Each structure stands twice: as structure tokens, then as C-alpha cells.
Amino acid sequence: MSLRKLAYLAIVASLTALIAFTTGCAPEEYEVNVQANPEEAGEVTSEGTYEEGEEVKVEAKSKEGYEFEGWYRDEEQVSQDQEYEFEIEDNKKLVANFIKKSHEEEYIRNRIEEELSNNWKMIKENLYSLMKDTVDDPKLSAFEISNINVKLSPNKKIGGECFRIRSCYVCFKWILQY
């Protein structure tokens, strides 16, 4: 066999090996499984197969009467946001936990919104009155009012922090919860 034929065969063999190697190195694929807990409490999206390194965004939306609590993997919370973004590195099973809203909490929220829309201000006494309407003993409630001074005026200030009117419930919840 001539040297020229040997060189030609070596080049062809090298190219064949190179092509076989590069086509055999497809990116790893991973599964993302998502579920709502309890199932009837909300909807979750973005379950599927993704290539390694790909950005994945899962989303949870609560249904009426429920509130999103957080995303969990193996019973460990990985995010408190309804939209959770991550880079896929392995198979993931994510659970979106939802909690049932209490009627007491909804009642308080509605009363606060009503009071604010009528008067543009709420004082500590309004909150005490609200609590007495809600439960027999305010101390047994899920909310605490003692030791706070709350005044919401047209500039919407609470404890020196500014909030929009739509955020008001969140800040009251933050102030009132144990």
C-alpha cells in the first residue's frame, strides 16, 4: 500500500471518528415535574423536558379561596415567589404549596380596604374595632394589634414606609401577624 493511500485512509478514519464523537455528544436532557398541593388549590405550568443548562421558569397561580405559599423540592422550600426561575442541572420534582385563606383574614382585608376607600385613613382604634367584630377575644386571633401605632393618610405612610393603596393589606398583614 502506498504512503498516499495510507494518508488518505488516516484522514478519512479521523474525520469519521470526529463526526461520530461530536454527534454522540448531544446535551443531556432532564425532566421537570410540577404539581399543586392540594391539587384543587391552584394551577402550575412549565412541566416538561429541558436540555442541561437551559433556563426554566415554573409558575403557580392560586385559585379563589387559596393563597400561594411557596415552591418546594424534597420538602425544602426553594422559592416564595409564584414565578420560580432556575438553570436545569438534573431532574426536578417541584411542588407548589397553597394554603386556604381564612374567612377571618378575608373579612379583615375587606374591612380595611373599605375603610381606606371611604376615609383614606385608618387609626389604631379602627383596627381594635375590626378585631372585636371578627373574634370574641382578639388575643386568640391570628392577628396581633397591641403595641402598634398605625395611621394611613393620603400619602399612604405606615411606620415610615410608603405603600400603594393596593399593597395596604400586605403591610397590615405584616404588622398584624405574629
Automatic annotation (TrEMBL):
A matching Pfam family: Flg_new_2
KW Mitochondrion (keyword) present: no
PROSITE patterns attached to this UniProt entry: PROKAR_LIPOPROTEIN
Highest taxon listed in the record's lineage: Bacteria
Gene3D superfamilies with a match to the protein in the record: Listeria-Bacteroides repeat domain (2.60.40.4270)
Signal peptide: 1-26
Record key words, sorted: Signal
Sequence ranges assigned to domain Bacterial repeat in this UniProt record: 33-100
Entry protein name: Bacterial repeat domain-containing protein
Species: Natranaerobius trueperi
